[in-house]
Amino acid sequence: MKDLYFYHSFPKGYYNKRSIEKEIGMEILESICTIGFILAPEVVNWKKSIGIKTKPHNIIQQRICFTLLNPTELEGHSKEFGRFSIEFNTDKLRNIGAMPVFYVPKGIETNESPSIFMIDKILKALNIMNLFESQISIGIKALLGYLYPADDDYERLKNYRLKEWRITGNTLLNYIRKKENLRKKDIDLNEYEKNELIKIDHNFFTEITGERKKFKRIDECVKLYKFNSEHILNYANQIIVPDEVEKEARKIIDKNTIDCRVTSLSCFKSENA
User: Fold this and answer.
1) Full-prediction pTM beyond 0.90?
2) pLDDT tens-place string over residues 33-86
3) In terms of Cα–Cα distance, which of 13, 164, 32 is closest to 83?
4) Does residue 104 belong to any structural domain of this protein?
5) DSSP states of 133-163 as a string?
6) Domain residue limits at 175
7) What is the number of domains present in the chain?
8) Does some domain include residue 273?
9) CA triple 166-170-175, angle to 5 deg
10) Does a structural domain hold residue 263?
11) pLDDT tens, residue by residue, 111-168
């Protein structure tokens, strides 16, 4: 993966609202320093998206997403996903648990295809493992966190055209089972952290989601604050921010004793510039 890096960009959707973008971006950056990466839940409805009949249709995916880019692509990427980004070497993020997302299409002429058959069998296996309260179910849920529908309502984001990778909540739970120095409470949010995140984006984190089982989004979020006793940002190459907040961002990083450089977005020029 020479000349390619992973980028986590934020805040999405504010490119034409620069003052709001800067304020929210700085708040998110500070929250990453003090709380860590947030793995937020999304409910994927496999029946609605590709016609799967096996229950459960709804799978909760706790995930944080990264895009694999050449640095010359970051400027264009930031127009949709935000002008703040955190860059990782591919080897480092893969070691932490990042895996590529597999986009599952439905059949073109019918609701039958090998991909639908595969998802159906995975869901049936999950049902069996849940009956026996098997630890294998954690692994199956982790696998489902990397599968995503490529059609219908989910096509509006067109993420299947991106080189998207993820770290999921169940991947972290699997890791926790093998590491004595990482406990479940290390990835659960406490009440103070929940309140701080709600201040940043009240509508997103307090939204009631789910279908049969309703929940407030903040209550199903988990965090990735440390990995092997190191702050998650110490694994990053650099933090990229809009030019006008570079000095302020450096102060936040220094205040939280993070060992990561801060770079202006203007240093990243597209190939067409």
Assistant:
1) no
2) 999 999 999 888 777 766 677 666 678 899 999 999 999 999 999 988 999 999
3) 13
4) yes
5) T-THHHHHHHHHTTEEE-SGGGGGG-GGGS-
6) 5-267
7) 1
8) no
9) 95
10) yes
11) 667 777 888 888 888 888 877 767 788 778 888 888 888 765 544 455 545 689 999 9
